[in-house]
């Protein structure tokens, strides 16, 4: 069984060569990013903090991954499993992240376990 928290090392596409993970889903997705030939580099230590409003209070959201592809495009990815996908805060974070990405010329995607592929990338 995979630990929910830990560190992956010897990463080729991560600028530091290692990365911490906060869930089994994150760990598995990090392995997938390493295997994906379209991915040039990826990191969780990107420093991006996105503000969003939750019941009138300003909150801050740090997306899981910043990915740069071989073609130069960039995306923010958030790994989420059930029931977190259904939470109101998850929806608000996603909407704010999408707006942020539009200003950067990037895309935002939620990543969850998929049944047809290793992971399903949800636009």
UniProtKB/TrEMBL annotation:
Residues 36-112 form the TnsA endonuclease N-terminal domain. It holds the Pfam family Tn7_TnsA-like_N. InterPro entries: TnsA_N. This is TnsA endonuclease N-terminal domain-containing protein. It comes from Candidatus Woykebacteria bacterium GWA1_44_8. The lineage of its organism: Bacteria, Candidatus Woykeibacteriota.
């Amino acid at each position: 069984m995979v630990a929910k928290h830990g560190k992956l090392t010897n990463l080729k596409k991560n600028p530091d060569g290692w990365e911490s993970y906060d869930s089994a889903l994150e760990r598995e997705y990090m392995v997938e990013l390493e295997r994906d030939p379209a991915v040039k580099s990826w990191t969780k230590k990107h420093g991006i903090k996105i503000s969003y409003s939750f019941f009138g209070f300003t909150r801050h959201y740090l997306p899981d991954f910043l990915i740069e592809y071989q073609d130069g495009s960039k995306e923010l990815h958030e790994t989420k499993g059930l029931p977190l996908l259904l939470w109101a805060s998850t929806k608000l974070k996603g909407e704010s992240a999408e707006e942020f990405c539009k200003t950067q010329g990037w895309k935002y995607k939620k990543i969850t376990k998929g049944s047809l592929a290793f992971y399903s990338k949800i636009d």
